[in-house]
């Protein structure tokens, strides 16, 4: 077998391997979606319907419903959400990020800027204030557990139940 035939053979093998990887990725995505439907919709809905918060399985595992939330501050609600946090004594959750973008070939200037932050380099920093999503989720969960009022609309709060399995 000459080199050209080996190249063609390996290229064909590579195509086959890529198809197999794509098929497996697609199958994993479908299996993950099915699992999420079961743990976040089907099982919690049925357990709520029959009035159970936990069930012990034959193997000793326990299925429990937990209350979870998703939340996030949209760009449209950012100002109002930050004002609410500050007004209610939680302004420390807001983090400020300063980003400076340098162009290609400006590595030395970027290093100099890092060392000489106090001086003007001709670049305008971008200042962004935000609350990290996991910090927001923890904060909202904690406030709800305390019974405190949290504006669901400006924080995009979406509560849901999730079935979790605790192995024996």
Task: Provide structural commentary.
By secondary structure, the chain is of the alpha+beta class. It has a domain of 72 residues. The protein is built from 5 helices and 5 strands; from the N terminus they run αββαβαβααβ. The strands form 2 sheets. Strands 1-2-5 form a 3-stranded antiparallel sheet. Strands 3-4 form a two-stranded antiparallel ribbon. Strand 1 and strand 2 form a beta hairpin. The model has no long low-confidence stretch (mean pLDDT 91).
Task: Give a short summary of the structure.
This protein is an alpha+beta fold.
Keywords:
single chain; 168 residues; two-stranded antiparallel ribbon; 5 helices; 51% helix; flat
Q: What structural class is derived from the secondary structure elements?
A: alpha+beta
Largest sheet at a glance? 3 strands, antiparallel
**Helix-strand string:** HEEHEHEHHE
Integer average pLDDT: 91
- Note the beta-strand portion: 15-25%
> What is the C-alpha radius of gyration, as a whole number of Å?
26 Å
Order of strands in the sheet with most strands? 1-2-5
Contiguous helical run count: 5
What is the distance, rounded to the nearest whole angstrom, between the alpha carbons of the first and last residues?
57 Å
The percentage helix is: 40-55%
Task: Count all strands and give the number.
Answer: 5
Question: Globular, elongated, flat, extended or rod-shaped: what is the shape?
Answer: flat
Poorly predicted segments: none
